[in-house]
Amino acid sequence: MRNVLVISIKEIVTQKLTFCIAKGQLLSRNRSSFTRYLLRTKF
Q1: Of 2, 6, 26, 31, which one has the fewest beta carbons inside 10 Å?
Q2: Superkingdom, according to UniProt (predicted)?
């Protein structure tokens, strides 16, 4: 019983981690495109 709990907790943690990583990648990609857009409008 305890093993199943540990496994489910691990799965939840890994899912949250992967979600956060994907979110961060999306944010960084958007940020880079945003800075590129700013540079294009400035010059």
Answers
A1: 2
A2: Bacteria
